[in-house]
Design goal:
Length: about 425
Amino acid sequence: MAGPILTHLLPDTAAIDAAGRLSVGGCDLVDLADRFGTPLFVYDEAHLRTRCREAVAAFGDGVAYASKAFLCGAMARLAHEEGMYLDVATGGELFVARHAGVPGDRLVMHGNNKSDRELAMAVEEGVGRIVVDSFDELDRLDALAATTGVRPRVLLRITPGVEAHTHEFVATGQDDSKFGFTVSSGLATAAVERAAAAGSVELVGLHAHIGSQVFEVGAFSRAVEVLAGFAAPFGLPELSVGGGLGVPYVEGESAPSLTEWAAGIHEVCEAAGVTARVSAEPGRAIVAAAAVTLYRVGTVKDLPGIRTYVAVDGGMSDNPRPVLYGSGYETLLPRAADAERPRAVRVVGKHCESGDLLVREGWVPDDLVVGDVLATPVTGAYGHAMGSNYNHVLRPAVVFVADGDAREVVRRESFDDLVAREATGARAEEFES
Ligand SMILES: Cc1ncc(COP(=O)(O)O)c(C=O)c1O
């Protein structure tokens, strides 16, 4: 038995009317599902803007939105309008950010295996900072400078040797990691010496990212202490502590705010005598709670004595996190958002996998029926971004809501999109002759 959904898991502008119906940004969620179809990502624009402003106020100039959490043109523009830089990790993310009009010098380019093409793109687009991850990348930057004459500003990604208490797939600060230069092995020192002496890059600072969905400020503090101690002799002007601040997904979880996180980091930096500009790259903490996903219930299967399966029209293709990390979510019916939720169900998708589940332990009102719109909150990060079209299920539309208006910022995928990249014309004729 669960009570009504706790409002701290809902977007900032969520409101429940006298009839129990849930709206976000002044838009009724059931109406949005009827109008735009399901599955549907609904983002609260005011919530997104508030979190971006909070990040800028907490860290100052240089703080970047980690676009891997959720990227489309509208999101890139919004983060830029609110004064954030954008962290991009591939040529694709770089392209989308530039396509949206974000100036190159407001971008920070990441990636543990940047290709020649991606580095050339970064230089051509005048990316503000490249975060260098390996000696091979330094070789590539030497070669690039020899042909372009450009000396990009770089940070070096340092692995502090700190375990973050999170899922092993999103922990990156420990020594055994594919990312960065480890402090303990001496690779970090060698990398700084090499980059500082290189004519091909301008070394302006150091960077570390210990992992994602980290709740404990202590883990960040330990990483910053290592980083600050390591950085001190080099006197570089910039230090980025990466992203990774966790968010609550289910009842009973809580996490520090962006402001509290920044205060903890600044405190440790001050104590360690850091004089460099300290910045960060939150992703999840900006976008996760800003969105809910809406689904339509298609099948309710009661297995007596076992469980009830509620199947919806999306699944692991729009939210792979439960399958990848065993992540938990809450669920609710937007038509009865203030109702008690006495009925235990497992919310599953429509894919051909038993593992295709969205909510392992969900609670819903007793009167849930086929045709209901069902919502999962806190789905703004790493859902749309990590989604697929497995089983050729069409990728959902994305809608931004504010002040009673809903604008579709990404349209739903179409059947034509599914065949748009297939060989046609000459190739097809070749086969036919
Ligand atoms: C280098 C880097 N910065 C920032 C982030 C954003 O992390 P989060 O969304 O947990 O804040 C990531 C995520 O993996 C990352 O790899």
